[in-house]
Amino acid sequence: MTAQPTTYDLAGIGIGPFNLSLAALADGVEGLTTCFLDAKPAFSWHPGLLLEGTTLQVPFLADLVTMADPTSPWSYLNYLRHHDRMFPFFFSERFHIPRREYDHYCRWVAQNLPSCRFDAEVTALAWDEAAGTFVLTHRAADGTTGRLHARQVVLGTGTTPTVPAPLRPHLGSGRVLHSADYRSHRAALAALGDVTVVGAGQSGAEVALDLIRHQDGDGAGGPHVRWLARTPAFAPMEYSKIGLEHFTPDYIDYFRALPDATRSRLVREQWQLYKGVSETTLGEIHDELYERTIGGGRPRAGLHPGVEVTGAEPEGDGYRLTCRHQQQDTEWTVRTDAVVAATGYAARRPALLDPLLGLLDLDAQGRYQIDGDYRVALDPRVGARLYVQNAETHTHGVGAPDLTLGAWRAATILNAVTGRIAVPVPRTAAWTTFGAPGAEAAAPAPAPAAGGTAGTDTGTGPDTGTGQPSATAGTRR
Known about the structure:
By secondary structure, the protein is an alpha/beta fold. The protein has helices spanning 17-26, 76-82, 86-92, 99-112, 182-190, 202-213, 249-256, 260-269, 271-274, 279-291, 393-396, 406-418, and strands spanning 7-13, 34-37, 116-117, 121-128, 133-139, 145-155, 160-161, 176-178, 194-198, 224-228, 301-304, 307-315, 318-325, 330-336, 338-341, 345-346, 385-388. The protein contains 12 helices and 17 strands.
C-alpha cells in the first residue's frame, strides 16, 4: 500500500548527528515544516565502537546545538538535567564525555523530536517538475512504501566503511571485519590466539587497546595483538589551541578559495588534524604494555608503523598476510587468526540519487559541487534546493566530518533554507590569518543554485538515511 504524498518545506535523508543537529535547530522555527527519515528502527551512532571507557575527542559543547544556539532545549546540558545527572556530571569534571553517553543523548533528542521518523528507508529521490518539489520514496521494514514531497532536501547519508583491497574478498567470514562491527565480534576475537589490527587512527588504537586488555595479567591468555599502520608513526592528533582553529568558519572560507589541486594536497597532508590518535589513548596503550614487562615479561603485542598490507590469503582457520614496509621497501608474511580493519570511512553518492543523476552538476571527478551554504549544484531546470552534510571535505576541508562544526553547519543550512537569520552564527572565530596578511582571498564563485541562478552565500555561513545505518564519522569523534 502506498501512502498519499505530503509536502514539507524541508526533508532530511538520514538521521546521524549532523542531520539530527539540523532537526533540533529547526524545531520551533516558525512557519517551517520539516521531516527527517532514516532506515534504522531507532537512532544509533557507531554502535560497533561504543566501548566502555571511550570518550568523544571533542568537548561536550560540540553537542547537537550549543555551538550555534546554547539556549536550545536540545543541548547536552539540558539532557543531563532531564536525566538527573547534572550534579554527577559537575563532580566528574569531564570536558570530554563518554561516547556511550553521547549516543544516549542523541537518542533522547531523536526520540523526542516529532520531525524524526525511523524505519523509513529512502529508496529514491526524484524531481517532480510539475509540482516544483523533490519526491522522496521511502520503505518500511515490513515492505510498506510511501512518498512525500519537499521543497528543499538535505542529504545526511553519512559515510561508509572502507577496507583495503586485499582484505575485501574475505569480509563476511567473521575473521575479517571493519572496526565498525568490532563490538559484536569482540568476545570471539578476544578468544583467539592472534589478532591483527590495521589502521593508525583512533578506532585502530581503541581496538588494539581493548584486545590487549583482554590478555590475562600473566600474559598467557588473550590474543597476541599486532597493530599495523601505513602512517610513518602512531601519531597523536593535533590538539593545540591554535591548531584547532582549522575547525572554524575562518578556515573553511580560506580553504574554499584555494585551487582544487591545492585543496586535495592539503587534505592528504593534514591527516594528523583528523586521523591521529588521542594522546590519552596512546598513553593507555603504553601503560598496558609497561605493566606486562614487569619482572622481565614481554608484551604479547607488536606495533608496526609504516606498514601496508599488500596481500591476504586464507590459511587454516585464519589468514596469511603479506606486508610491505614502505621506508625499507621490504616484504614479509605473517599468519593471524583474524583481522580488524580500522581503516576509516568515505563519502559515497548513495543509490537513492540515481533518479537525479542527469540533474546533478558534478565536478570532473564525479563529486558534488558545493557552495558556501552547503548547497549542491543542480541543473538549472531544478527549481528546488539540495544540500549535503559530511560530503564536502574536497570543497570545505578537514572540518567536514568533525562534530565541532556540526551545529554551525546545520545553522548555516537552516538560514539558507529559510532565507533569513533563523539562528545567528559567527563568521570570525580564529586568531589565525590563514591567507596572505592584508589581502583576503576571494571565495570561489558559488555553485549554480536551483533554478539556474548563481548560488549566493547568505552571509549566515559560507545522517543515515538512504536510510542505511548512519556512519557519521566525525573522524574526531
